[in-house]
């Protein structure tokens, strides 16, 4: 079965540029860890690039995903949203069978 790498929206790259991530030599790291109320949880941080990372880049801004997290994020969409309750990077993950209300944990 063919799996596609995650996609990053222009809005997510724009937000990284606004906060100066690329200018600081940092990338948005999206990882999946065990835990959370649904079994897995997303970890999103500004971080350095490692040797085993998949690097998604546009206009000097980078999003990186480690090799362990990559299968969990195949064909996912990484976005940035602003709502009344706050602004945050979000992940629309077609591999998740269910997720919690806050959107930071999921089950497969």
TrEMBL record:
Organism: Pelagovum pacificum
InterPro entries named among the record's database cross-references: ATAP, ATAP_core_dom, FeS_cluster_insertion_CS, HesB-like_dom_sf
GO molecular function: 2 iron, 2 sulfur cluster binding; 4 iron, 4 sulfur cluster binding; iron ion binding
Domain Core: from-to ranges: 7-103
PANTHER family: IRON-SULFUR CLUSTER ASSEMBLY 2 HOMOLOG, MITOCHONDRIAL
Protein name (Swiss-Prot/TrEMBL): Iron-sulfur cluster assembly accessory protein
GO process annotations (BP): iron-sulfur cluster assembly
Domain of life: Bacteria
PROSITE patterns in the record: HESB
């Amino acid at each position: 079965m063919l799996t596609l790498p995650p996609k990053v929206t222009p809005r997510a790259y724009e937000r990284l540029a606004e906060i100066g991530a690329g200018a600081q030599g940092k990338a948005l790291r999206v990882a999946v860890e065990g835990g959370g109320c649904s079994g897995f949880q997303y970890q999103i941080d500004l971080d350095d690039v490692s040797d085993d990372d998949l690097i998604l880049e546009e206009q000097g801004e980078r999003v990186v995903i480690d090799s362990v997290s990559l299968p969990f994020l195949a064909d996912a969409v990484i976005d940035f949203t602003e709502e009344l309750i706050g602004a945050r990077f979000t992940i629309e993950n077609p591999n998740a069978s269910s997720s919690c209300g806050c959107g930071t944990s999921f089950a497969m």
